[in-house]
Structures are given as structure tokens and as C-alpha cells.
Amino acid sequence: MFPDYNNHMSSSARISRRLTQVPASPIRKLVPFAVAAKKEGVHVYHLNIGDPDIKTPDVMLNVLRDWDKNPIGYDQSQGNPEFLEAMRTYYHGLGFTFIGTKNIQVTNGGSEAISMALFAVCNPGDEVLTFEPLYTNYNSYAVVNGVTLKGILTSSDTGFHLPTRDVIEKAVTDKTRAILICNPNNPTGTVYTAEEIRMLVDIAKEKGLFLLSDEVYREYTYDGRTHVSLFTFMQEIPDKAIVLDSMSKRYSLCGVRLGTLVTLNEEVLSGILAIAQGRLSSGLVDQAIAAKLTDVPDSYMREVHEEYTRRRDVLYDGLRSIPGVVIPKPEGAFYTIVGLPVADADDFCKWLLTDFRDNNETVMIAPAAGFYATAGRGKNEVRIAYVLNTAAITRCVALLKTALTEYGKRKA
Ligand SMILES: Cc1ncc(COP(=O)(O)O)c(C=O)c1O
Fold first, then answer.
1. Which fold would CATH assign to domain 17-55+299-411?
2. Site residues for ligand 1, CB cut-off 6 Å
């Protein structure tokens, strides 16, 4: 139980009510059980978090190997000029030649870009529309910024694609300030079509809303799909469009905490720069590493893409052959929401770590309830990140198949 936070007579220091409202990450909350299993000598396969085993490009690692700057000081608040220039080149390479370095704010991971964007477009109590299941940390950043996240439900029956314009417009209230999408989507793996993005742009225009597009998995689309970036429409809604980006997944740089927030809206940029000045700078070493992105060979990007495609195929083919498992074919990113024949996925995921062993191995996956903004949703679903090699994924599928049978018997 929490102490009584409203008891102003108490002499003890009190934490804020909003601190108690930040949800525990469903990706990390089972970690103590995984740690305990590992202490027992059990091998735990991690499909619970998007921290890939793909190698970082050598041209980037060489920056660390050759490092000779001393001291390691601050960098500029907007971002290191070389890194900004590299990002501009990258966006131009995608065809968006209207982006200048002045439109790019460097952030401490895509995570900070999300938080800054919510802070920039909402006053406390305002609402942001998004689509459920959603990237779980949107929930955390909404609480941190005093924003109410309203989740519009998408379903595995339609591959988690967007509902009709009518459904989305009905969810808009006088408190709604923005629509937030993740494309390609974590956790569903959905890649929105040009028509879907066009529809959101039209709604943003008509209702006077910001449109925030988290595109950290831009490169990962499968089966010949092309990614339709919000950049495509940015000049049409220059004051409303904000793209959120990250280096973490594109170059396997999760530990280099870098992302960008990109917009043509100068008011947003200057406000965000003020926040960036308040937190001084992003990492000098991190930006020096990431600035090498223009030297990453095309072959690296191609091979990584092929590897994720293989992993997706192995996971999808394996899981859909298990009775009772519902898995739409992931279209992009490296995640999928999977319906399981269990009543309480939270309990199942925990049981995998505390009780289930096969040849002294088990698998860690994330219960999906935390990937919804609406309480009560996703109870029989899990989110799986296909971030391990194909042999490991094949083994994980076998583990899940055995585990589901054993868990079913246990509950019967
Ligand atoms: C959809 C999405 N957005 C943003 C992020 C933030 O990543 P980072 O802070 O590592 O750049 C993640 C990380 O998993 C993500 O999946």
C-alpha cells in the first residue's frame, strides 16, 4: 500500500501523486524473475525487449577505438554539427530534401524526442490520440508530461491497421491536441499504407491537431512494402507535423542514446531547444559515433534487413503452427502481438521464468496489457521481439509450444 499522500500533517517527505502513476514497464517488470532463474543456472532467451544482437557497424566502433579527445566535454545543445549534417544527408537520401539542419533537434534517444514532443504540444490535462496496442513507454511519457493518452483500439483481425476516419474523428474532443502514431509499429509490426497516413494528415488539418510520427523502425518493412513517412506530407502541414526518430535500431546503437525530433514548426523547435539547453547536451562520444552513419555501407543495411526478414519468417511460421495461437503476419519493425490460449498472459509470462524449464532453458516475453492505454485490454496477449538469431528463435518457438501445453495442464 502507498502512504497517504494527502496527509499534509505528516512530518515525512511525500513523493508526488504523479510519480506513483508512472506505470512499471511491462518489458522490464519481470526482470527480477529472469535474474533469479539465471542465478539457478537456467538459460533465459530474451524476446521481451527490442535490444538486438545485431552488430554495430565497424565504421562507428572505430570512433571508439581511435578516440583521443580529452577531456570529453559537452556538445552544442541542438546537437553536434557533424551529426546534424549526417542526419540532414540521411533525410535527403530518403528524398526529403527540404529538411535543413535547423529543422533537427538532437535528443537523448528517441525516448527524449517522444517526451519533448508531448511536452511541446500539450498542456497538462490535454489529450493525445493514439492506437492500441501501443509502444508501452508512450504511457510513461504521457504521465510524466501530464497528458492523457486515449487509445483507439486496433485489432489483429485487420492486422492492426487503422480504423475508419469516422471512428478516429469521433474520438477527438476539445481537449485533443495531437495524434501519435508509430510506423512501422512497435508492438504490432504494422506498416501503415499511404492512404492511412493521408487520412491522418487530413484529420490533423481539419481538426487543427499535431501529428506526431515515431519512425524509429523506418527501414524495417517486409514483403516489398514501402514505408510512407510523415515527411512525405510535412510541407503540406508544416506547423503540425513532427517526426520522432532514433539511432538505436537502425544501426544497432541502443547504448548510444541518440534520437532526433524533426519539424518545420519554428516555434516548436525554439521551445525544444530551450529544454535542450536546460539539459545542456547529448553525449559528445555518442554523437561522434553516430555521425559516421553516412559511411555505413549499403550492404550493412541490406544484410540487417534480410536477417530481420528471416527472423520474422521463422517466428511467424513457428508460432502459427501452435494450436490456439493468433499471430497476424508482421509487416515491419521486429515485434509482434500474439494472442495466446491463456486467460492471464501476465501470469503465463511470470510462470515461464519461475517454473517452466525445458532442458534447463526458458524464454522471456512481455505481457501485452501494458501495451494498451485502456485498462483491461490485451490480457491474453504477449509482445514478442524477434531480436535473436534464427536458431534461437526456433528454440524459443519450441519452448513456447511445450510451455503452453504444460501451462494448460497445470491450470486444468
Ligand atoms: C517505437 C519506439 N519509439 C522509440 C523508442 C525509443 O528508443 P531509444 O530511446 O532507444 O531511441 C523505441 C525503443 O524501443 C521504440 O520501440
1. Aspartate Aminotransferase, domain 1 (3.90.1150)
2. 50, 109-111, 135, 182, 186, 214, 216, 246, 248, 254, 259
